[in-house]
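Justification of computing resources. Each target in the renewal requires a structure prediction run like the one illustrated here; the chain below, 391 residues long, is used simply to show the kind of job we budget for.
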Amino acid sequence: MTASAVLSSRVRSAAWLLLPAIFLAGCSPKPAAEDPVRAVKFVTVGASDFDAQPEFSAEVRARVESRLGFRVAGKITKRQAELGQHVQAGQVLAQLDPQDYRLAAEAARAQQAAALTNRDLAAADLKRYTELRAQNFISGAELERRETTWKAAQAQLEQAQAQLASQGNQANYTTLVANVASIITAIEAEPGQVVQAGTPVVRIAQDGARDVVFAVPEDRATLIKAGSSVAVRGWSGGNELQGQVREVAASADAVTRTYSVKVAIDAATSPPLGATVYARPQALAHGTATVMKLPTSALRQEGKSSAVWVLDKSTMTVRSQPVQVATADGIAPGMMVVAAGVHVLSPGQKVTIYQSKEAAAAAANAGAKESAQPVAAVAATNKEIAVGAGK
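Resulting structure tokens:
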């Protein structure tokens, strides 16, 4: 056998020996990919006081509000009142077409004149027949008939006078006037509209005392008593006002099933009518409690409870910590809690602390090491809530 034939035989033998290794390498499983190291934002938990006194949204209203309407039916021809206008007692607010009522008053006046003429004629007859009776020219029965005629004529005259007064009042009722100094808070009818007697045309709020009105649920309505203190603050800020509970509704609202509470405040310092304010009843205050405050973005749902991710700085991994919202038994102050991206983490996952590009560039230029402090702006754009550690 030549040298070239021996070399070719050895090459073929080596190729057959390598084939099983190649097949085994192709069938072996690939190594599992490691979880990525995520950059997350943190906030450091600290204890603070939390005011447990509830606050209710309320509205400023006049102590006395009235809906004014005409006492007669008709078509509105003019409306002098405007929304928000301050009016004085006796000022004209609106007018109806008075033509029909004027004609009725003239008819009543004519009936009164006719009744007066009949009464005078009956009185003259009675006087003449009285003289004739004194001379025994007529009988007593005839005189009594004349007296009866006179009495009937007198009654008809009185009826006509009452009818004229009534029709005169009807004509006057076609003008709607303010009964007290007040502010127009609503317009409920317009010129050209035909209204029935009593239909509201304008709504007024009388000048004077002001109330702050808000609604409370049934379980708290029994705790608020008349005369108890209530702190009132404006929606847009300003000084806090002090008021007293004037009235608590005896029955619940048919729709909301809440109880209305009216708080008397000083009219001189009261916000404008209809303004939104916040009321804090002193009767519902429970003092202050020590809690931990976190941004809402730090919370996540874990089963039926809420939880947050807490950083273990020794291993730079995160662990899940159940919490109870608005309780006082707290997470330990100083813990670093993930404030963003909570739904992409898993227990034990390695993380790094996120830094903005500007902060990273500043640290690089200064030659400083990566800071482990939380980003201060994390909670700036998130609503804070009080939480406590779950048991």
